[in-house]
Design brief:
There is one protein chain. With 169 residues, the chain is mainly alpha-helical. The protein has helices at residues 2-18, 28-33, 36-73, 79-104, 109-135, 160-167, and strands at residues 23-26, 140-143. It is built from six helices and two strands. A two-stranded parallel ribbon has the order 1-2. The protein is elongated.
C-alpha cells in the first residue's frame, strides 16, 4: 500500500514539474542603446520631427495672427467681409490640423519614417529573441523596460546580452 502511495506521489510530482514553464527577461532599452544604427536613426527622426513641428507651429501662428487681426478689424467689417475672414481663418486652422495629421498622425510621415529607419532593427531583435526562446524552451520572454509591474527579477533570467551577442554587438 505504501509503495502505491509513494508511486502516486512521485507521479504527481513528475507531472507537475513537466508543466513548469520557463521565462526569460530582456531589457529593450539596454539592447537598443547598444545598437549604433538605432541611435543614429533616433537622432535623424528627432531632427525631422523638430523641422515638421516648427512648420506646423508657423502655420498655427499664422492662423492665430489672422484671428487677432480679424478681432481688431471686426467693428469695421461688413457682414460679407466678416464671413469671408471667418472662412479664411477656419480654412487656415483646418490646414494646420491636416498638416499635423499628415506629419504626426497614426499613419503619418513620422510613423512611416520611423518604420523605415527602425523597423528592420526591431525585426532583427524580435527574430533573435524568438530563436533564443525556441532554443532554450522559454514559454515567455518579457521586456523588463516596459513591464512596470515587475518588482524584482533575477539577473540570471535576463537574456539581453545573449540577444546582443546573437545580433553581433
Amino acid at each position: 500500500m505504501k509503495k502505491i502511495l509513494l508511486a502516486g506521489i512521485a507521479m504527481m510530482l513528475i507531472s507537475a514539474s513537466s508543466f513548469a514553464q520557463k521565462y526569460a527577461l530582456i531589457d529593450m532599452d539596454y539592447i537598443l542603446k547598444k545598437i549604433p544604427q538605432y541611435e543614429m536613426a533616433n537622432e535623424q527622426l528627432d531632427q525631422i520631427s523638430k523641422r515638421w513641428q516648427s512648420e506646423v507651429e508657423a502655420l498655427a501662428a499664422e492662423a492665430e495672427s489672422m484671428y487677432k487681426q480679424y478681432q481688431a478689424d471686426m467693428v469695421f467689417l461688413t457682414a460679407d467681409q466678416k464671413t469671408a475672414k471667418e472662412n479664411a481663418i477656419v480654412a487656415k486652422e483646418k490646414e494646420v490640423q491636416d498638416l499635423r495629421l499628415k506629419y504626426f498622425g497614426p499613419e503619418g510621415e513620422l510613423y512611416q519614417k520611423r518604420n523605415s529607419l527602425v523597423g528592420h532593427i526591431q525585426d532583427d531583435i524580435y527574430n533573435a529573441v524568438k530563436e533564443i526562446a525556441e532554443r532554450n524552451n522559454y514559454s515567455m520572454v518579457i521586456d523588463r523596460s516596459s513591464a512596470e509591474s515587475i518588482i524584482f527579477a533575477s539577473p540570471k533570467i535576463d537574456i539581453s546580452k545573449e540577444v546582443l551577442s546573437k545580433l553581433g554587438y
